Amino acid sequence: MRSEQAKAVIPHQLLIFNLLVFNIMLPIAALLNSMERVLLPIAITCSLSIIFFIWYRAKFTHQTLLINAHWNIVWKRCRIVLIAYSISLSIELLSTLMTSFQTDPQLRSIMMIAFTRIAIVPTLLIVTPLLISSTIAMTKIRKGKLKTGL
Predict the structure, then answer these.
(1) How many other C-beta atoms lie within 10 A of the C-beta of residue 60?
(2) Which end of the chain is more exposed for a tag (fewer CB within 10 A), N or C?
(3) When comparing pLDDT for 74 and 116, which is higher?
(4) Mapping DSSP to helix (H, G, I), strand (E, B) and coil, where does residue 102 land?
């Protein structure tokens, strides 16, 4: 039973790693160093790779009921992250469209910096509760509870 619980924790650990490194730490480092155009695509690509792996494990790998349930729970949380990404991408595309009409290059640069920071907010607001809920789920699994909520 212990090994089954340990295997059920793995998807939550993977999600927490993804959220902490590629959705919090790397974007903040990018913003602090004004390297948004370089680091944010790298962070999103790595995060999407992990999300794809979670999707694959949730849909095509069959193990015990407990382990499958937790891969599916984590996949549901990843879908929420994908929604946050789409909102952030929409804001970024809208800002690119708005700044394309600006003739002054300095003002365009200021607008892009401001809009990029605004575009990251939906993702950060979604990541925080998901991080907390995955941590709670890991605790429940380790205590032997079979079901966890979203």
Answers:
(1) 7
(2) N
(3) 74
(4) coil
